[in-house]
Amino acid sequence: MGIKLIALTIGVLSLSVSAQACDTARNLPGQNIDLYFEKNSTQISSDQTLKMANWAIDMRLKYPIQEVLSVRGLAEANEREPGKLALQRADKAKAMLMQFGLTQVEYDIHGAIYRPLVHYVELPETIRRVEIELSPGCPNNCCDGE
Fold first, then answer.
1. How far apart are CA 26 and CA 18, in angstroms?
2. pTM for the structure as a whole
């Protein structure tokens, strides 16, 4: 009789764990990469192209379901037409990501002029960038491994 009681208890615990595996919509954490640019330029250098190609391949292999790709171009305030330049950088990055096979995902494109934080100083070469974030999805919005 004691053995039957233990088996029944284990079955109930197993049921409650699997029922709680996914009780709300969940997605995986965002995956990020930054691309850097020369001053007043929208050209993506060969080393940055290779970096982005490798990242795009990894993302396609690891995350077959992709919710959205956020692409945010940044420019320094002292660059030529910084608002326009930031958006052009983002557009260039998007075009390249699409060439590398990230075509079945919604893109969210933004450009902005970099605004420094009060107590944080970045080097100019890291300010001139495109920030890319892939939000991977899960089957049925549920990342429970099933």
1. 15
2. 0.77
